[in-house]
Amino acid sequence: MNDKKRTPELEHSHKPEAVAQRLQNTSADNVFSDAVLGGIDGCVTTFAIVSAAVGAGFSATVAIILGFANLIADGFSMAVSNYEAHQAKQQYREHLKKTEAQHIKLIPEGEKEEVRQIYAQKGFSGNQLEEIVATITADDNLWIETMLREEYGLQAVDKSPRQAALATFIAFVMVGTIPLIPLFITSLNIHMQFLYSSLLAAMMFFMIGSVKGFYVHQPIFKSGIKTLLTGGSAASLAFLTGYVLQNYLLSAG
């Protein structure tokens, strides 16, 4: 690397203790993606309800009831689904772990050959390759973890299903409540309530997208706008659906 590009922060982050600390922060503690998913979906869900209710000509009371009912039900459903998905990953990993342990016990030479070919494909050969194979296969736990990672592409640690579900539900409810707040301001008419709800929803979409962009080292403004457009499109479809159905049902009646 060019010395001009080296910074004190970059050098500090590559010191032995910093590297060790970073490697300890595994995906088990990372529920950021679950929170982002829950937040976006929560805001889309409730604001879509508000948009559809206003488009259909319903009152703020109806929008609040439908909004909170969907907020709790959908948030819980999404959290349970996320829990089941992560639990299924863990169960699948445990199944493969037991399978590999059994294979190592029954056909160790065959499993050693798998390790040998895996690292041969990485460019190792001769004595160096044999030393790697000997080192890995000398420890059954290391051997199994190596096979899970290299043969099946599974990481050593996955995030807790409970933590993932909780992060999803909390973010879903917290962010999803924001677009409903203006509906409680009875001094405003339904159109002004919808306007303020739209502004708050837009702020939430942009904020979540910006935070996501910052976290994954992408342009913050671009990421915020992208999420805003995605959420806004969903809300627009909901408003249009409510408006069209309301007018169709009135004309049909």
From TrEMBL:
Membrane-topology annotation of the record: Multi-pass membrane protein
GO terms classed as biological process: intracellular manganese ion homeostasis
One of the record's GO molecular function terms: manganese ion transmembrane transporter activity
Keyword tags: Membrane, Transmembrane, Transmembrane helix
Keyword Transmembrane helix: yes
Superkingdom in the source lineage: Bacteria
A GO cellular-component term linked to this record: endomembrane system
One Pfam match: VIT1
Localization terms from the record: Endomembrane system
Keyword Membrane: yes
Coiled coil: none
Entry protein name: TIGR00267 family protein
Segments crossing the lipid bilayer: 47-73, 164-188, 194-215, 227-245
